[in-house]
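Dear support,

Our group has been running a series of protein-ligand predictions, and this particular one with NAP is the one our PI (initials K.S.) wants archived with full inputs and outputs. We had some confusion internally about which version of the output was final, so please treat the block below as the authoritative record. The input we submitted was:
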Amino acid sequence: MVTGANRGLGRALVESLLSEDAAKVYAAARHPETLADLAARDSRVVPLALDLTDLEQISRAAALAADTTLLINNGGSLAFTDPLDGDLAAVDLDLRTNFIGTLATSRAFAPVIERNGGGAIVNLLSLVVFGPVPAMAGYSASKAAASMTQALRAQPAAKKITVHGVFPGAVDTDMIRAFPIPKTSAADVAAAILDGLENGQDNIFPDPMARDGHQAWRDDPAAFERRMASM
Ligand SMILES: NC(=O)c1ccc[n+]([C@@H]2O[C@H](COP(=O)([O-])OP(=O)(O)OC[C@H]3O[C@@H](n4cnc5c(N)ncnc54)[C@H](OP(=O)(O)O)[C@@H]3O)[C@@H](O)[C@H]2O)c1
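Confirmed final output from the archive:
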């Protein structure tokens, strides 16, 4: 089950799961008609309607996708909001989508995965968890909040569910199209996420910027904060 599956990294994750011989992939999107080409190309793709800000729709999706064993919480929004004068409504939307949406989807699907004998939950976080980018202050906070992934890990572990956090650097999708910095392709990042999952990594750093950034943070957190703040 992949949320935000219609474009960007979500679509690349669906493609990777199919090429890794997944028996079925629930591809969830706000507008499921945007998944028609994927579903027409491969009958293993089951489109589902899911807006992460709609808690009832999340419950319905969990009831429909009752044979899920892997949930990839990929869908996310990014508003450019400075900390002092950014639009608060935009900050609120990022928090509701990236934090509450991810948490609610995890809550809805954990019992489903448990009933199916166990599996995994994968949460798309970001390198900004380790050092916020001021122009993305609300987004950075929403991703840091979604690091409740670690709290979640302690909970469902007993129910045979592994919980993984993914901390990408810059990925070449619509989300940061306007940022002229080196980016890794969504296909490469998706493949690295599935490799990390297969290798049992709790925290997955799926691209060179992520790995370099995480090492820089470990070496000198204050210097890393300044580096991210200058972006
Ligand atoms: N791109 C990067 O550099 C980068 C870096 C670190 C982490 N990430 C994370 O990776 C994930 C995928 O991002 P991306 O780069 O693929 O971004 P993207 O190209 O902007 O795609 C975002 C996806 O999330 C969906 N989405 C947004 N709001 C939603 C909502 N309320 N309910 C359901 N789906 C919603 C979008 O659906 P619509 O088409 O309907 O808008 C779209 O499918 C996100 O969690 C993002 O924060 C990305």
